[in-house]
Amino acid sequence: MRVSSTITFGKLLIAPAVLILSIHSAIAEDQTVNRMIASQCAQCHGTNGYARGSYPDLGGDEAKDLADHLYDMKGEDRPSGIMDHQALGYTDDQIRRIAQYYSTLPENGGD
Amino acid sequence: MPLTRRNFIQMVPASAAALTLTGGAKAAEPIHHVTVLGGGFAGCTVAKYLRMWSDGEIAVTLIEPNSNHVSCIMSNLILNKRLKTTDLTFEYNDLQVKYGVEVIHDRALRIRGPQKQLRLKEAGWVSYDSLVVATGIQFDKIPGQDFRKVPHAWIAGGQSNNLRNKINRMPDTGTFVMTVPKAPYRCPPGPYERACIVADILGRRSGYLDGSSSVAPRVIVLDANPGIMAEKGTFTSAFNDLYGDIIEYIPNAQVESVDSDNLIVNTSQGSFAGDVLNVIPTHGAQNILRVSGLTGDSRWADVDPVTYASTNTLFQDVYVIGDAQGTGQPKSGHMANAQAKICADSIIRTAHGLSSYTEERLQNITTNSACFSPITYDQASWLTAVYSYNPDTGSMGLVPGSLGEAHNWSSRNFNDMFTWSDNLFADTFK
Ligand SMILES: Cc1cc2nc3c(=O)[nH]c(=O)nc-3n(C[C@H](O)[C@H](O)[C@H](O)COP(=O)(O)OP(=O)(O)OC[C@H]3O[C@@H](n4cnc5c(N)ncnc54)[C@H](O)[C@@H]3O)c2cc1C
């Protein structure tokens, strides 16, 4: 469950501090940090996770599905694809943050 | 009329200024103004993300001398005519209309850090609040090199067409001589990829690769470095096996001078003559960084990778991203885009009086790179890596295991290359 708090600085989109009440963490998490890590996927998966062509969209994915997918790739015995190597570049917590952030975005990229 | 910061902002077209990214509500009064120098991969990404992430609260002016940008990424495919320069040309319309970036076509000549002023060729001295320098590279002058006769084709556009035309006109079994600049240089696998593409063009045109002719063309690769600098496995096998009779690879060859009329390059490993000469000079950050004092003793600007702010304390609120910065991360467009997002996030924080150095943020600063390299007419390989910030060293380090290269070149990779570049281009320019 995700509860938007009223702790904001600047305008809403700048830093809507969001409380993540989940098994992973119960403390306020800086959504701009999650947005910053997640934006590193956009070179291939499109701005706000809205990809062109055959690469998968990330926006609107269930957080658990996307995170599990990345954990699986990270766990490959013999990494071979680009994404196997990319997944190895992130800590488990970073993967959770990336997945959590994309789950808050609309499926259509929002623009 | 000299441009001041105020009329910079006023020059934003009214329609664009009123646009927001969240469905047309009126844009907020800007709380801060950012001037970006250079409309390439780094500059366009930072301009777009500053506008998008600040929800219009930060006004952005982009200064770029050219009316559009021709991408270097994929530009080796101009040589074998898979692409034309128009396929790789990006306009600034989307940045202006969709994101409300003000675009001014002018060239920046000098930065005065202590005064927070900038000199433009047409507009003269103007002041800035924050300045992002994303001006790419500049070549060292090599005695005798005339770029019309001996192109570099390492900044895409007319130079790419020039080299393509020269390859087109050279004898099928002639000699192509190219040089690889001293590292660090733009696009580590790029020169080796180019050698493969030219070997493929000439090998097929002469009939050598399909066995209909027994006379091999020659591609001589003169590398200033002690060995292949990227995708070593892939290029070693392409040079030795696939193009074994065509490509001759010579390491430790420092270019000393060029005879542009007789097409001879003189190096520390001897002189080489070719029917076509492609000399890519060693390069560094653009002159504006060097004359302004942003590069110090180095060729590149030293920055803090938490913010991309210059470490030179005379330059408050000046950031350097893309190929021009000197963090040691690979000089790629994918990486330039990645750095731009870290920088945009930091500038937005600063504008709101927030620190970029929170524990949470420091632990989550990452960038990544990917390069696809065409090896034949319809097959490609790739290279990828993730970098993360190390608070102990204050630098970006390669994350173990994340560095990978394709096990072999394939047509699937070739197709993926177009999907990848399409997404990267859109995330940067659209
Ligand atoms: C053949 C080749 C293949 C490549 N392949 C890949 C690849 O597969 N993947 C990858 O990620 N990268 C690749 N690259 C590298 C990539 O193109 C560069 O790393 C990238 O363009 C760097 O971005 P940048 O914004 O720093 O510079 P640029 O994209 O070069 O942009 C700099 C901009 O600044 C402008 N400018 C210059 N001087 C001034 C001034 N004084 N005032 C104002 N504006 C100025 C220029 O006109 C230009 O528009 C390749 C490069 C080459 C040459």
UniProtKB/TrEMBL annotation, chain B:
<dbReference type="Pfam" id="PF21706">
    <property type="entry name" value="FCSD_central"/>
</dbReference>
<dbReference type="InterPro" id="IPR052541">
    <property type="entry name" value="SQRD"/>
</dbReference>
<dbReference type="Pfam" id="PF07992">
    <property type="entry name" value="Pyr_redox_2"/>
</dbReference>
<dbReference type="InterPro" id="IPR036188">
    <property type="entry name" value="FAD/NAD-bd_sf"/>
</dbReference>
<protein>
    <submittedName>
        <fullName>NAD(P)/FAD-dependent oxidoreductase</fullName>
    </submittedName>
</protein>
<feature type="domain" description="FAD/NAD(P)-binding">
    <location>
        <begin position="33"/>
        <end position="144"/>
    </location>
</feature>
<dbReference type="InterPro" id="IPR049386">
    <property type="entry name" value="FCSD_central"/>
</dbReference>
<feature type="domain" description="Sulfide dehydrogenase [flavocytochrome c] flavoprotein chain central">
    <location>
        <begin position="162"/>
        <end position="281"/>
    </location>
</feature>
<dbReference type="InterPro" id="IPR006311">
    <property type="entry name" value="TAT_signal"/>
</dbReference>
<dbReference type="InterPro" id="IPR023753">
    <property type="entry name" value="FAD/NAD-binding_dom"/>
</dbReference>
<keyword id="KW-0732">Signal</keyword>
<feature type="signal peptide">
    <location>
        <begin position="1"/>
        <end position="27"/>
    </location>
</feature>
